[in-house]
Amino acid sequence: MGFLCPAATITEAEEYLDSIKKEHPTATHHCYAYLLNPNEPIEYSSDDGEPNGTAGLPILNTLKSHNLMNVILIVVRYYGGTKLGKAGLIDAYQTSAQQSIESATLNTLVPIKTYELEYDYPQQSLIEKWKNEFTWIDLESSYLETVNLKIGCPKGENELFKRSLKSKEHQLIRFEITGESFHIKN
User: Fold this and answer.
1) DSSP bridge pairs for 32
2) I need a labelling partner for 172 at 20 to 30 A (CA). Which of 82, 122, 146, 181 fits?
3) What is the CATH number of domain 108-185?
């Protein structure tokens, strides 16, 4: 049986693995793979005692073939007395991983550029115009003497958004490109 869970960090992946091991303490194997951090991908797989490359790698390849990120997939196996051989094990782990993914509700991970904007309240109409023209992801906001926004823009729209910002830069107190990240779209 397979278990697919979101995990943004190695610690989260390990915690989920531990919880599955506690749920199934008598299982013969807890084979798994994870893919984390779309900006600097981290991948790992474990055969957990199965012959090398027959469990973790098929799970990892299934995650990759579905372009999944920030997930861990664990396949729990109870030995039933029948030896499957290497090909049988690869097929069993691949099939279980595939079925786990097919039965899951998946979210889309959108790569974004992040920005910080600072402006005076009279410029709010300009900001509203941008919100309507572009896919705007609010990350953080502060409304004090001036307005400070941390926003994300999908990478596909980034160049056009950046040009629009630069053309109106004189109406803002400040704008800065702060980096790259991702947004989970439900």
Assistant:
1) 46, 74
2) 181
3) 3.30.70.240
pLDDT score for 83: 80
- What pLDDT score does 186 carry? 67
Query: How many angstroms separate the CA atoms of 145 and 36, rounded?
Result: 39
As a CATH number, domain 2-102 is: 3.30.230.30
**Whole-number percent of the chain with pLDDT over 90:** 77
- Both structure tokens of 61: 């390849």
Residues of each domain in the chain carrying CATH 3.30.70.240: 108-185
Q: What is the pTM of this model?
A: 0.70
- H-assigned helices in the chain: 10-23, 56-65, 85-102, 124-133, 158-167
Span 121-142, pLDDT tens digits: 999 999 999 999 999 899 999 9
CB 31 within 8 A of CB 94: no
The strand pairing partners of 153, in sequence order, are 113
Coil, strand or helix at 112 = strand
Residue range(s) in the chain whose domain bears CATH number 3.30.230.30: 2-102
